[in-house]
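--- STAGE predict ---
source: upstream dedup step, 1 unique chain passed
mode: sequence only
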Amino acid sequence: MLRFAVLFSVVCVCTAVGVPAQGQEWRQFRGPGARGVAENANLPDTWSETENVAWSREIAGRGWSSPIVTGGRVFLTTVVRDEGEPEAAKPGLYFGGNRLEPPDVPHAWRAVCLDLASGKPLWEKTLHRGAPETPRHIKNSYASETPVTDGEHVYVLFGDVGLFCLTLEGEQVWQRDMPPVKTRFGWGTAASPVLHQGRIYVVSDNEDASYLLALDAATGKEIWKVDRDEKSNWATPYVWRNEQRTEIITPGTGKTRAYDLDGQLLYELGGASSITIATPYTAHGLLYVSSGYVLDRQKPIFAIRPGAEGDISLQDDETTNESIAWSQPAAAPYNPSTLVYGDSLFVLYDRGFYAVFDAKTGEPQVELTRIPGGRSFTASPWAYGGKVFCLNEFGETFVFDAADNFKPLPTNKLPADEMYMSTPAIAGDRLLVRSSKRLYCLADSP
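--- STAGE serialize ---
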């Protein structure tokens, strides 16, 4: 293990001072293209509490943001109470987790940086301190937005506090305040920022006044801001650079909308479920958008062609039109995003089921199937090495063989006394899994 750590440290140093090693960077939520797919052949496919754990590090406070990686460093966020612990949450979907008032004790909003090779803390910076001004559902956190990086700076968003630009060494470059907003039932915020060509895009869909904001990444100054006819949503936007143009995709309960880089509306699409969380992404020249609140009958997955204009909503019983290559009207998950791996679109459902569709046509490949022993999924699935991985809230990762009709493989388990809601990150030959207490770095032992 020591030899492995030394060799890996050399790789990380080379990455930090030169061109990043292939697959070494995981700079945003769900990684390159927001797809959750990696190609490194040396990534682990089995692990346990004692097997293939390169290191683990306790993380104070609560945060459901995913880790990101650049230059051999891991960045994540957390919020720590000055007194006591956050109210305990139980796994699964349930009513009764709403809270009408925020806690009245001071909190510290923090960014944390760890060494990827060893897990050693490199720095920790408190960006804001005070009592929260808005409540949170007990399963949410005050640090649910995943940071994003361009390899030179890290951009940290706390939805009710502000957006912060930091150097990789933790020095603050600029700050933009984000006034607190009301969210549906006080559930709180979660949509992460995205970067594209020197601009940061932030969506704030809330009960007060929703908007899409474009900022200069170098200075934090506003470039433009457009109002959105939406209430609360929790979906991270996606910048789609296709063969015709670049589009900013913003899923919403009222309408999924696409804007150009000047904030002008290109097209919109209705028909979502009453709550929208999943992140869009592209594959095979199509844009995949999903919305699947568990209590709705309408839970669509859309595969959209580039170049759409105007209102492209499906009419009556349509499942396709000139702009929509295919749709499945009742197939979307609630919390997890879908996953395209190869020619298949894998759907993980919160309550322990999965299904698979042809990513190009929408035709079913695997009908709705219960995951043996599976329950309570919030994190989005990921894939590498011909396998798809699904982490539930109890630390169990269910593995499926993509080459054999997604047949279930043996399950990997981490400590069950922790809670797992963050979507993992992948960097080089290492998998990063965040729990309510720790960050685990998983790697095949040499």
